[in-house]
Amino acid sequence: MARLLIIGTLEGELGQAGRLAHARGARLLQADGTMAALEVLRSQGADLVFCDIAHDVAWLVQTLLEERIATPVIACGRTHDAEAALRAIRAGARDFLPLPPDAELIAAMLAAVSGHDDAPVVQDGQMRALLERAAQVARSEASVLITGESGTGKEVMARHIHAASRRARGPFVALNVAALPESLLESELFGHEKGAFSGAVAARRGKFEQADRGTILLDEIGEMQPHLQAKLLRAIQEREVDRLGGAAPVKIDVRILAATHRDLAAEVRAGRFREDLYFRLNVVTLRIPPLRERPGDILPLAAHFAQRYAQVNGLPQRGLSPAAQSALLGHPWPGNVRELENALHRAVLLAEGREIGPEAIELLTTAPFQAVAEAIAIIPAGPRPLNSPVAALVGRRMEEVERELILETLGRCLGNRTRAAEILGISIRTLRNKLHEYRGQGVAVPPAASQLAPGELMPLERG
Q1: Which of 10, 251, 431, 457 is the most buried (most CB within 10 A)?
Q2: Would you list the DSSP string of 10-32?
Q3: For the whole prediction, is pTM greater than 0.70?
Q4: Structural domains of the chain, with CATH
Q5: Per mean pLDDT, which of 99-108, 162-171, 293-302 is the most reliable?
Q6: Which residues are 257's β-sheet partners?
């Protein structure tokens, strides 16, 4: 259940937007102004903010940045007020919600931050067995480590475990460890006291405190830096957190779920992940197999996504033609369920006629660097033929080739930086640093999946 904070009156069209969000399962919070909203975000937190453009959106976004609060802000206003909308977006608002509100657009915005609250769509035998195992451990308090390749649906599994647990009435708070720099991540997890750093003008509860009596999901836990690993271990052992700048620990009652696409045992052996933390998190392991290992789920998932995105976009429901089904079953799905979801979203938008045909199924090729690597591997030693696949690279600077490879891979992954880093064989932090460097050079960088506006093809990452 997404936590939506509305800044402004609940009367009129903004209130209508709140009621539509509540009907979609959102938990509503309300503040009359930006100062009151800050107090709510510091004490309770929220997954999304709807802010009336009558308020100072620019000040709010800047203050959230200074206080290390990573909550996206959506500016809301009348459709004809284009100038105010443009100012809000330039000030850092994630998107603009035209009023009067559209129910499906609100649904898309909530889905983007909540990762969808759908139950897992399962037909394949080994996934059925996995859900049975998940049901066994859901009622316990044990920590669960959910593993699997990027895009297999690790957050969906985590939400399913929470919904089946004794904490289901409590909050479910998810945090992608790889999406935030270390300084911001520490504040997000553990909170901070007033004066803990420049810009910390008030105390703020972190994700652990926000998840009290509920469940916290630490997604991409393998990307956490050693300093925070030690602090996380203490939080798990002592069931308390130390806020940044705090004088005393704060008790918490939280169930911890962790997810990763990495082999954490191998990370432990390599000295990149603490062994004691690994055993604390790995009480029970649930490995979600890649989509290529569970072909029985491909068509049920495809039908599910086709129905969802037809509804979201106000388009007629269409089934998949036999030829389209064959195309889906014949694809290796390197991007797993996330790639399938994106493919069906595109297909729903492109399809014509009574069915979704193969012409609407645009399947992305795998990483471009793989083709180059394979080409290099099959070329014998000695002078390269002039028509070889790598001949065009001769005479170019290494950093230019690297930059094009990184940007092309990121584009093929539709802004999913975790997936792009995995394909490239580098850490998410290395990728983030490279992209920051490219921006400084004036190079256009594809937006992260979490920065895309609702309605674009790439939904927020959900593991």
Answers
A1: 431
A2: SSHHHHHHHHHHHHTTPEEEEES
A3: no
A4: 3-114 (3.40.50.2300), 126-289 (3.40.50.300), 292-360 (1.10.8.60), 383-451 (1.10.10.60)
A5: 293-302
A6: 144, 217
